[in-house]
Design brief:
5-stranded antiparallel sheet; 43% helix; alpha+beta; single chain; 3-stranded antiparallel sheet
């Protein structure tokens, strides 16, 4: 293999590897894997220095007890507090997918795009992506980069998305994005039995690696192996054995064209490949922010920026603690009047009785002195500056400072923190956009017979099936800007109630905004209670209508206006007098009855209110 070298002005020497192809034999693939592993080791070792230290600071392991001279290793871990305040705040919302059809004038494409948006949002919620986003942000803060990996589990027939620790990846120094990286390697681990099931052609080599011919239960041994990805190819390596090699398994390389005829008899040539992507890609998504464009990982991190202040905070905290310990002072003995043995036996505890020559003159207490005020002020300043770096102050944590704070002032401070977190939210929106497009690619690729989903009940209720037809050809998927910014729940509820009072919100959306666990069921009960209260009472409250005894006194008659009846009762009344309600009449009666209980200044008035059919039915009744 030969390498080409390019010397760019102002940049280090970049080596471009010979392109990986399936024609390469196992020996060449093994040599390539070894070379890539050695090259990535430089990046891995460089990052490890920062990653290990960042992780220790997050854990609170910030002081070396050996250097404290028997002092208490007190740590005020503000880094952990601020990190774990920001993470749930920036991951509390579901990123809202927006699908743009290739032809927005095509009603079928528009409807498919709406269904795709709903399906992606439901998949996100039911795939536990919120907790995976929390881990993603935590990895980014500690490791300077966070990774997600997408996959398709053929056995479960499900799309799978998982976090990947950067320490398990083998990344080159060149490339500023996943697609620009010449390769990505990853360390994986499975039992020998699982590995044989995945690579049955290499059963002999796998068994030999664990000594299956000499040991019992050897197939339960765990084996570490590597997977290497380029945009177009993938291969697996176990030690000196190449387990398999393939074209990118998440891309359809079989480009075909077929003639399609639309409803108007117009003919067109369409591509029949199964791809949502235009080009094959590596199945990884990276999150990074503080990046100067030199490599895929960040050039610094929030933890590293806060470290010197955290060290200063811990030092001041220890000084205050030591001073507090010396508040009672120290005992001083007169060596002329008390022996060293007698003085050593003296503990200085409250109520202790001591008999010594010279009495009180033989012992004296030297009281401690208070620290200068600047020590505490400096400690508070260090703490506040760490909060400033992270953008996490007391208002975001829900704490109250001393004294009374105006609500408006707290709101301004909270909004300022949320503005600082906007850069993290925007990065997560970019990650979400990549994620939704990856899901669309996998749906098109594996969804011909339908794909299972954890959120199957929600999808079924909305009559959405995850098949390849769900993703229109050439649809563009983006995430709505600002959809991941933290939102105040009380404000959302007030806005929902205001829209409801103006008749601008449907019941299901109202209950969703109010945080009800099952908004569809709540809306169903509301409609039933408003439109058929007797049916509601019988179904949910167990109420029974009063029975009339045979031959007994008839109950008092009750007159009721036709318009006060439910649509079903109105239709029954019309049929009793020989009038069959037409479909438009049914729809209009339903609309009028719904508008009657909707809290709105505007009412739904049927267009046929003065029509002959309506007049006849009203008069006949």
């Amino acid at each position: 293999m030969s390498d080409a070298k390019i010397d760019l002005p102002g940049e280090e020497l970049i080596t471009i590897e010979e392109e990986l192809t399936l024609k390469m034999d196992d020996a060449d693939l093994l040599a390539l894997a070894v070379k890539w592993e050695n090259d990535s080791a430089k990046v891995k070792n460089e990052l490890k220095k920062f990653q290990d230290r960042n992780e220790k600071y997050w854990e609170g392991k910030q002081v070396d007890p050996k250097k404290l001279n028997a002092q208490l290793g007190i740590v005020d871990n503000r880094i952990f507090t601020d990190m774990e305040t920001i993470i749930p705040a920036v991951t509390s919302q579901i990123p809202e997918p927006t699908a743009f059809p290739e032809n927005d004038q095509d009603e079928q494409q528009r409807q498919a795009s709406v269904e795709l948006e709903s399906a992606l949002a439901i998949l996100f919620e039911d795939s536990d992506m919120q907790s995976k986003y929390e881990m993603l942000v935590r990895h980014w803060m500690i490791n300077r980069v966070g990774f997600l990996k997408v996959n398709f589990d053929a056995e479960l027939n499900q799309i799978v998305t998982d976090n990947v620790r950067g320490q398990r990846l083998l990344i080159p120094s060149t490339g500023r994005s996943i697609n620009e990286l010449p390769y990505i390697g990853e360390w994986l681990e499975k039992t020998a039995k699982e590995l044989i099931a995945e690579f049955p052609k290499k059963e002999k080599e796998i068994k030999e690696s664990v000594g299956a011919d000499k040991k019992t239960n050897a197939l339960g041994s765990r084996i570490s192996y590597q997977v290497w990805w380029t945009n177009e190819y993938v291969f697996w390596r176990m030690g000196t054995v190449i387990l398999d090699k393939k074209k990118n398994i998440f891309f359809d390389f079989g480009e075909k064209e077929e003639e399609e005829v639309n409803d108007f008899g117009e003919k067109s040539i369409v591509s029949t490949n199964k791809n949502h992507f235009k080009k094959p890609q590596k199945p990884y998504i990276a999150m990074r922010i503080f990046n100067l464009g030199k490599q895929i990982y960040d050039d610094t991190s929030l933890i590293e920026q806060a470290m010197p202040l955290q060290d200063g905070l811990n030092k001041r905290k220890r000084q205050i603690d030591n001073n507090a310990s010396d508040a009672n002072g120290v005992w001083i003995g007169d060596s002329d009047k008390i022996s060293a043995k007698e003085f050593a036996q003296f503990q200085g505890t409250p109520g202790e009785k001591v008999l010594i020559p010279g009495g009180a003159a033989s012992l004296a207490r030297e009281t401690g002195r208070p620290l200068p005020s600047f020590v505490e002020n400096d400690m508070i300043d260090n703490r506040n500056e760490i909060d400033n770096i992270f953008g996490a102050h007391s208002t975001l944590r829900g704490e109250r400072q001393g004294g009374r704070e105006a609500a408006a002032s707290r709101l301004v401070l909270k909004q300022a923190d949320e503005g600082r977190m906007g850069i993290i939210s925007r990065s997560l929106e970019s990650v979400s956009s990549d994620l939704y497009n990856w899901w669309a690619q996998l749906i098109r690729l594996f969804g011909a017979g339908g794909i299972s989903a954890a959120g199957g009940q929600d999808l079924e209720r909305r009559q959405i099936k995850i098949t390849d037809k769900l993703v229109p050809q050439n649809v563009r998927i983006r995430v709505k800007s600002g959809s991941l910014l933290p939102k105040d729940k009380d404000t959302l509820k007030r806005e929902a109630l205001e829209l409801w009072s103006r008749g601008a919100l449907d019941p299901v959306t109202l209950f969703e905004k109010m945080g009800y666990s099952n908004p569809q069921e709540s809306a169903k009960r509301l409609l039933l209670w408003k439109m058929q209260p007797m049916v509601y009472g019988g179904q949910y409250l167990g109420l029974q209508p009063p029975e009339q005894k045979p031959g007994g006194e008839k109950p008092p008659s009750l007159s009721i206006r036709f318009e006060d009846l439910t649509p079903m009762e109105q239709e029954q009344a019309l049929s009793q007098v020989g009038i069959q309600a037409q479909s438009d009449l049914r729809n209009a009666l339903f609309a009028r009855n719904v508008s009657a209980f909707m809290p709105s200044q505007t009412s739904v008035t049927p267009d046929f209110a003065g029509s002959k059919e309506f007049s006849e039915s009203n008069n006949s009744y």
